[in-house]
Each structure stands twice: as structure tokens, then as C-alpha cells.
Design goal:
seven-stranded mixed sheet, Rossmann fold, 8 helices, alpha/beta, globular
């Protein structure tokens, strides 16, 4: 697996954002950063993007059949998380109570990866899951049986994402509602925001809103 990292903002900021991304995300990253600054009142932060080489494999926690086309989902999430912990986070960030607030997030499958990673380690102060692929086979059950090791989670979904004929993806609305209820009932500070449109509308803005909620929550 190959990863490419890019750093934006102030590397000495107390707020540290990590986003797994693909080529499409990278095309919109400057716009996303502008939205984050707008939504947080120009709060200082450092954003590190980690561009993965194989989206379906590098961010999937376990194998699953392809949803569209013939590209199956792999099980590369543990390797990707290991890369983040060893090569992106500073030593202090890996300890609870470190100087910086570290938020992991992303869009679509990257949002699912962030939720899964939040069950593996307490290194992340919060999780920003924008329109996450929470329909992923077996993930709802996994989440209900594995406690999140962070106390803040942002969830969002487009209001047309569940309006599809695909039998698996049409359940995304039910799954995200039940997951939100479960997280709230478990004592996690969690919000579920509904955006206008389908899965492909304004991913840069939706991801920015996810990170901004965590940053503004920290400010409060």
C-alpha cells in the first residue's frame, strides 16, 4: 500500500485534522479548507491529508463484495490505521490527554474508516464521518458490539442517499439513524446532520462541516 501526505495550515496548531482521501477529494481540498475556516471563524488548525492508493481496499475493515462494478472491498484498514499512528501522529498524540486535539475524518468510505478507527484506538479526540458508507456489510453490528474510544462523533447524510433501488445502499438511512441512537445512548456526544441532495453533492462542504462541528465543540 502507498500513501501520500500533504500538510495544510499551521503545523504548530493545537487542532490537528487527519483526512484520508482520494484524487477527487484532493481536487477540492483547498475549497474544503476555505469552508472550515469560514465555519470556525478562522480558528487555527493543521490539516494533513493521507491519499490512499486503492480506495476500496485501503479503507475497508474487512472484505466485502463489490457494490458497483467489479472492484471488491478489501481489508486494508488496519494497515492504513497503523500508518496514521506511526507516521502521521506525533508521539504525544498517541497518548490520551496529549497537547493537541486530533480529529480523524473523511467522506464516504473514508468516513466509515474513521468510525472504525475510533473503535481501535483512543488517539483521536473526535470522529468526523461525512456521508459515511455506514451501509457497509456487517458494520452496524460491529459498531454496536465495539465501543467507540472517543467521546465526540459527527455524522451526516444527504436526504436523498437512501432513495435508491440498490437493496444494500437503500438501508443507509436506517443504519445511520440507529447508529446515531446507539452512540447517543452510549454517552457519546454525537450529532446527525441531514444535507440536501444525494451522495455526490457538495462533499467538500459536507466534510468541512463535519470537521468544523468538532472544532467549534472544542472551543465551547
Amino acid at each position: 500500500m502507498a500513501y501520500t501526505t500533504n500538510t495544510y495550515g499551521n503545523p504548530d496548531a493545537d487542532i490537528f485534522l487527519i483526512q484520508t482521501a482520494d484524487d477527487h477529494d484532493m481536487e477540492m481540498i483547498e475549497k474544503e479548507i476555505s469552508y472550515i475556516r469560514e465555519y470556525t471563524g478562522n480558528r487555527e488548525f493543521c490539516l494533513i491529508t493521507v491519499k490512499v492508493d486503492d480506495w476500496n481496499k485501503d479503507l475497508s475493515p474487512w472484505p466485502a463484495p463489490a457494490v458497483f462494478g467489479d472492484e471488491d472491498f478489501g481489508e486494508g484498514a488496519p494497515v492504513t490505521l497503523d500508518f496514521l499512528l506511526k507516521n502521521v501522529l506525533l508521539p504525544d498524540d498517541r497518548e490520551t490527554g496529549g497537547r493537541r486535539r486530533v480529529y480523524l475524518g473523511g467522506y464516504s468510505l473514508a468516513g466509515l474508516f474513521a468510525l472504525w478507527a475510533g473503535c481501535q484506538t483512543d488517539s483521536f479526540t473526535g470522529i468526523a464521518a461525512a456521508s459515511p458508507s455506514i451501509w457497509f456489510p456487517g458494520f452496524a453490528e460491529y459498531l454496536s458490539n465495539n465501543a467507540l474510544r472517543t467521546n465526540a462523533v459527527y455524522l451526516s447524510l444527504g436526504d436523498r442517499e437512501e432513495k435508491t433501488r440498490h437493496p444494500l445502499m437503500s438501508q443507509v438511512g436506517n443504519v445511520i439513524r440507529s447508529s446515531y441512537d446507539y452512540l447517543k445512548g452510549s454517552g457519546v456526544d454525537c450529532v446527525l446532520e441531514w444535507n440536501k441532495g444525494n451522495h455526490f453533492k457538495n462533499p467538500d462542504m459536507r466534510t468541512a462541516k463535519a470537521f468544523a462541528w468538532l472544532i467549534n465543540r472544542d472551543k465551547e
